[in-house]
Every structure is written in structure tokens, then in C-alpha cells.
Design a protein that fits this description.
CATH architecture of the largest domain: 3-Layer(aba) Sandwich
Helix content: 40-55%
Structural class: alpha/beta
Shape: globular
CATH superfamily of the largest domain: Glycogen Phosphorylase B
Number of strands: 14
Largest sheet: 6 strands, parallel
Order of helices and strands: EHEEEHEHEHHEHEEHEHEHEHEHEHHHH
Strand order of the largest sheet: 2-1-5-6-7-8
Length: about 350
């Protein structure tokens, strides 16, 4: 069994696509002969971010990250995020001459510019330098891969995502006891998710939001007619999906949107803006309505057959995603012989 070290600044108890993807890949990789070992914030001193208490910011010493990587005797190294852990893992690999892959999960330039006056070009330049130091950058969709290539990123690898279709499935008995139709959104309740565009729509039935985040209190006050259910996981989350009539995805910045696949696997059609993310996941498949008029998309989605949504999602599995992930890492298995000796020497100097 090969051992893979994954450096990530995003980890439990965070609820987001990065954490879910890594967790699912670890589970699906075991039967394929691979074990993922995570360097995550819980392994180092950490503090909660002031406005995001569920996010723990790791404060590791460079030598601590290096020694953890070396102790794992890894066959491959993957850096999933660009935070302190990811940066120090990258720094160690470069100094020790160890090849590594990275993955591009989050559109930080857009997220940062939504919160602070930081020019997007500065952040893109930093991300390009970070990722181009590796031997391959994994991107979730072809459109994202093309965009990264246009922005000067090199060695881009297409790595799609999956869905747990056994958990997320149609459930005839599912009912929230709310007026129908039920328009649902699941995800982080934060400014970059553009939830106001959904909650301000004039729609029949009711609007339901599952998730938590810094914008929840403000949105709850401003939209008292919406139902905020907080964070849901596992069977409870799957039951909410199955009880919805349309899944509304107002984000304009997500690189993929795992929640889209969870909704479709539950037999729930999608309404979204025609932007990267929903456009890449759905394409021309008759399982969603993409429209610059989000309200019109919601109403059109109501007549989409639920069985078509389920059939589409069944094509996307975590096993296939894990297999692709491992195939990229097997191309860059680094750590033997003189390389391992050099890596140990470098770790001792940090």
C-alpha cells in the first residue's frame, strides 16, 4: 500500500468542499491500495479565525512540518491548500528536492476582493508562483483548467469530483412540513456565496438554507420569510435534499460545487447562474436551468424530471475520482534512496 501525505489547512470541523473532497478521497483510496495521511491544523498549534471560529489557523514551525512529512516515509506528497501548512510543506519539498502535486480548490482572488481592497491580479500572481513550483496542478473542471492555463499556470491535471449516491438519493417519505415548492440552498452562509440573490427572489412556496457562517445573522434578520436550518450532516442532510423541489445555487465564484452533485443524486434539479461551476458540472444535460435571471431558472427547474437528475449524478463516483487522483500521484512518486537521505538532512536543518 502506498502512503500519501496530504498537506491541508482546511480540515474538520470545517464544512466545505475541500474538507469533504479530501475525506471522501481518503475513504475511496483505501480499497485501491493507497493510504492518505493528513497534515492538518489539529496536528499543530492553532487559533480560530476571529470571524470564522470553525476555521483553525495553524501556526506550525517550519521544522515541525518537515519532520512530520519525513516521519510518514511517504511515497507521494500532495499540497491541497495555500495556507501556512501548505506553504511550509511546499517550502520543505523545494529545499529537499522532493516533487509534489497541488490542487486548485478555491477562487481566493475573488473571495479576497469581496472582503478587502486587494487587487485580484496580485493574488493570482501569488497563486501562480505557489502552484507552478509543483509537478502538477489538479483542477476540478475543464473550464477551470483552461482558465488556469490562460493565467500562466503549468502542468494542469483534470481531476473531477464525485458524490455518495447511496447517501444522497431520492426518498419518497422526505418532507420538511413547509409550503411547496421548496427551494433549497446548502453551503457556507458567507458573502461570497451570493445568497442575497436567492433570498430576494419572488418565488412560490418557501426558501430553505442549510449551513452556517458569518452572514447568517444578517440574512436571517433581513429575510424573515426564509427558513434557516443551520448545519446538517449525514442522513439529516440527505433527508433535507430529498425533500426539496429545486436546488438553488446563486454563487458566481465556486470552482465546482459538490452540493450540485448531492442535489442531483437526490433527484433534485438545479437552478443557477450560467457561470463556471454550475455550467461545468451540468453542461448541456437536462438536469438544471441556468439563466442570468435566477428567478426564471428556479421556475423552469420545477418541471425537470427528478429521475433524469439521479441518472446524471450516478455517473460521478468518488471511486472514479480517487482512481484519477492516485494515477497522477503514481507518476511522481519521489522518496527513495538518495532523495530520502537529502530530505532527512534538510528536515534537520529547519
Amino acid at each position: 500500500m502506498i502512503r500519501i501525505v496530504v498537506a491541508t489547512d482546511a480540515w474538520h470541523p470545517q464544512v466545505n468542499g475541500v474538507v469533504q473532497t479530501l475525506s471522501e478521497i481518503a475513504r475511496a483510496a483505501e480499497p485501491l491500495g493507497a493510504q492518505l495521511r493528513f497534515l492538518s491544523p489539529d496536528a499543530f498549534p492553532n487559533v480560530p479565525l476571529p470571524t470564522y471560529p470553525e476555521i483553525r489557523l495553524a501556526l506550525p514551525q517550519p521544522g515541525a512540518v518537515a519532520r512530520r512529512i519525513l516521519a510518514e516515509e511517504a511515497d507521494a506528497i500532495h499540497i491541497a491548500t495555500e495556507g501556512p501548512i501548505g506553504y511550509l510543506a511546499r517550502r520543505y519539498c523545494l529545499r529537499a528536492g522532493l516533487p509534489f502535486t497541488t490542487s486548485f480548490h478555491t477562487r481566493f482572488p475573488e473571495y479576497l476582493s469581496a472582503r478587502a481592497p486587494i487587487p485580484e491580479r496580485w493574488t493570482w500572481a501569488w497563486l501562480r508562483r505557489f502552484h507552478n513550483a509543483g509537478v502538477g496542478i489538479m483542477a476540478a473542471t475543464l473550464a477551470l483548467a483552461d482558465e488556469l492555463a490562460d493565467r500562466g499556470f503549468r502542468n494542469i491535471l483534470l481531476w473531477s469530483r464525485g458524490v455518495d449516491a447511496a447517501l444522497f438519493r431520492p426518498r419518497g417519505e422526505a418532507d420538511l412540513g413547509l409550503p411547496r415548492p421548496v427551494f433549497l440552498n446548502v453551503g457556507r452562509v458567507a458573502v461570497e456565496k451570493n445568497l442575497e440573490a436567492f433570498l430576494s427572489l419572488d418565488l412560490p412556496g418557501c426558501k430553505v438554507v442549510v449551513g452556517d457562517g458569518p452572514a447568517r445573522a444578517d440574512l436571517t434578520r433581513r429575510f424573515p420569510g426564509a427558513v434557516f436550518l443551520g448545519t446538517k450532516r449525514g442522513q439529516a442532510l440527505a433527508a433535507v435534499y430529498a425533500a426539496a423541489d429545486v436546488f438553488v445555487f446563486p454563487s458566481r465564484t465556486d470552482t465546482f460545487g459538490l452540493v450540485l452533485l448531492e442535489a442531483l443524486a437526490s433527484g433534485v434539479p438545479v437552478a443557477a447562474f450560467p457561470v463556471r461551476g454550475p455550467r461545468d458540472v451540468i453542461g448541456n444535460a437536462p438536469v438544471g436551468a441556468l439563466d442570468s435571471d435566477l428567478g426564471a431558472a428556479c421556475r423552469r427547474a420545477l418541471v425537470i424530471p427528478r429521475d433524469a437528475c439521479r441518472a446524471f449524478a450516478l455517473q460521478m463516483t468518488w471511486e472514479a475520482s480517487a482512481s484519477k487522483f492516485l494515477s497522477f500521484l503514481r507518476l511522481h512518486r519521489p522518496v527513495t534512496g538518495l532523495t530520502l537521505t537529502a530530505a532527512a538532512s534538510t528536515a534537520g536543518q529547519l
